[in-house]
Amino acid sequence: MAAPITRKIALMASHDWTLRAAMREFLDFLDPTLTWKGKKYRLELIRAIAKPLEVGTDLSKMADLFVDRTTHWNPYYRSWAHQAMNSLARMVNHSYTFAVYDKHSTYDIMSLSMHPDDRFPKTVLLPQFHPWSDDQKKQAWWEFEQRLITENTTLGFDEHRRQTDWDKVKSALESAKLADKREEIIREHFYEAGDYLKDTVEKVFKNRFPLYLKKAYGGGGGKVYRIDSLEELYQRYDKTGDEAFHLQEGIEPFDVFYRAMGIGPIIFPMVFQPDKPHHEHYSTEKPAMDPQMFHRMESYVMFINSYHRWTYNSYECLLKDGKLHPIDFANACPDSQFISLHVHFPLLVCSLMKWLSFCAVTQKDMKIDLEMTRYLKFLNAPKRSQIKKFEFCRKNSEAYFEIDTFQEFCEENFKGIEDRMIQYYDEKFDDIIRFAMEFSNFPETEHDKFYHQYREIMEKQWRPNAREYLKPVIFK
Length: 476
Ligand SMILES: Nc1ncnc2c1ncn2[C@@H]1O[C@H](COP(=O)(O)OP(=O)(O)OP(=O)(O)O)[C@@H](O)[C@H]1O
Ligand SMILES: [Mg+2]
Known about the structure:
The chain has helices at residues 17-30, 75-86, 95-100, 103-111, 134-151, 166-190, 196-203, 230-238, 291-308, 338-341, 345-361, 372-380, 386-401, 403-413, 417-438, 447-462, 466-469, and strands spanning 5-12, 34-36, 39-48, 65-67, 123-126, 153-154, 163-164, 211-215, 224-227, 245-249, 256-263, 266-271, 288-289, 312-320, 323-328, 474-475. The protein is α+β, with helices and mostly antiparallel strands. The chain folds into 4 domains: 5-100, Rossmann fold, CATH 3.40.50; 103-122 and 255-475; 134-190, no CATH class; 196-249, 2-Layer Sandwich (Dna Ligase, domain 1). It is globular. The two termini are 48 Å apart. Residues 316, 328 line the site of magnesium ion.
């Protein structure tokens, strides 16, 4: 028989020390020769190395699949990924939509596709505050003037030789004043006058608090404020400057905070505890879900991910009064460290192994074109029922992820992967825990303590229940 074909999976620069190590070691442990449509394949994990890149270079030749863990924090790789897509490279997440689509825009699209049994929290995009109130403007002018004076002053050996270029200061102030005047005109012509904060709180939120004031574009856990009163809203809004925020209904008190990982069509919910320290954000519980509710959650994750062509993303929603309330899902570089995921980490590794292999071996069409018109025409049709819209999204997501073909591929190649993971755990997983400590943010003096803590969680909680933890979901 012909020699196996090599399929390469390239990882872009990443801080996921444990994920990288586990993927490589587990792959070595499995040492699989995969088969598909009568041919044999071997997998190779490689790295996408940053080096000078000439435009027009075809990057698709380098690997069969690229895994982006980088482009939101590294501008070189962002441009690199865009060039890779220009050469039709297969990317695990679409790098244009990842760069462009933000929290607010994903909210908007999500709100159009909800199942009637759930609810999208009321959410409003606010105009940015800048330019400011008179007092703040005076303060800003004063600071600007002082800065100009400092910048245009040369100090001498003695006081007499100190010189300020007042002409420069004056002309800079004059042009700034002109620009400022134009800004004011823009504000007058294009922005709602009056107290739109108060109006929004009254009309949209019926004066109910708490509300959440959150930066509209997301990005790493900052600038999210819980607001208890109109007075507090004014105070916070005063400080938002020229950044855009939205105001969202607080879903409180909620029963469960679910954060689901979406790896291709494999969706696994975990219980999220944002108030705990970072390494305890994910609970060690394997949540048992109501099958219908899971179906809805799975459909939402698959829709957001297939619509944006993200196949490695996470999705946050709050369960209150039996309804799911989605709150955050433009996260196409979800935390994937052992330190954070612990008991859920082996499932992440198995899921990635399946999905990445599937995309690389079958040369899956990740579909750079977005089919937005088709989706949006359906979702915006005023007379169409919400359930029809929900079902349309589900059906199209299943088609995007090629669910049947994926299952067939896993059946052929990864049957029993769970048993192999358990074996791998028993023989080698200790190395991963040690490695996790070495690259963690825990102080070195505490590595030993945390090593034992994580080992205990894995030994006492994961190992006796490994089969349950390795299923994407368990049902009530
Ligand atoms: N509508 C809401 N109701 C209740 N709690 C909320 C709501 N929105 C946000 N929160 C709380 O605030 C936290 C942060 O909000 P969110 O997840 O939207 O932002 P984020 O994680 O900082 O976003 P990103 O990482 O994309 O910047 C949530 O984990 C949750 O605890
Ligand atoms: Mg979040």
